[in-house]
Structure formats: structure tokens, C-alpha cells
């Protein structure tokens, strides 16, 4: 499975946009795109979702405890 950084970078490049152009279209600062593509972990979920919305995706918080419980059933 691709990580967030690889997914965003690959998708951005597939539509031939620079980081600046992509940031403008997503409605976020250039630094947001750079942080995502560099794999930074201290990201604002709302900003990440603005970026992912460009590709029809979103991220949501997951309760790992509940997820693990459901997998063992």
C-alpha cells in the first residue's frame, strides 16, 4: 500500500502540476504540499483532506483498538 507522501506526489505528477500549482488548486499553502510529500507526520488533517479531495479521497481517524478487535473476529 502506498503511503500518503508517495500517493500525493505520484498523483500530482500524473496530472502534470508543480507543487505550487497543485497547492493553489487545492486551496492550501505550498508548505502543506511540501510537508505531505516529504512524509512529515505533524500534518493538519483538514489540510490533508483538502489535498486528497482533489483525487476523490479523504482520511479519517481510526480507532486501532476497535479495528484490531474486528479483525480477530
Give the structure's gist in a few sentences:
This protein has 73 residues and is mainly alpha-helical.
Please work out how many helical segments DSSP would assign: 5
* Apparent shape: elongated
Q: Find the CATH superfamily.
A: lambda repressor-like DNA-binding domains
For the report, how would you describe the main beta sheet?
none
Share in β-strands: under 5%
Q: What's the architecture, going by CATH?
A: Orthogonal Bundle
The stretches of 5 or more residues where confidence is low (pLDDT under 50) are none
Q: Distance between the terminal alpha carbons, to the nearest Å?
A: 23 Å
Mean pLDDT across all amino acids: 91
CATH class: Mainly Alpha
Q: How many domains make up the coordinates?
A: 1
| Rg | 14 Å
Tell me the CATH topology: 434 Repressor (Amino-terminal Domain)
**SSE-based structural type:** mainly alpha
Give the SSE string.
Answer: HHHHH
Structural description of this entry:
The protein is elongated. Helix 1 (4-14) crosses helix 3 and helix 2 (19-26) crosses helix 3 (30-37). The longest helix is centred in the N-terminal third of the chain and has 11 residues, at 4-14. The protein has one domain (4-71): lambda repressor-like DNA-binding domains (434 Repressor (Amino-terminal Domain), Orthogonal Bundle), CATH 1.10.260.40. It contains 5 helices and no strands. The protein has 73 residues and is mainly alpha-helical. The chain is 60% helix and 0% strand. The mean pLDDT is 91. The protein has helices at residues 4-14, 19-26, 30-37, 45-53, 64-71.
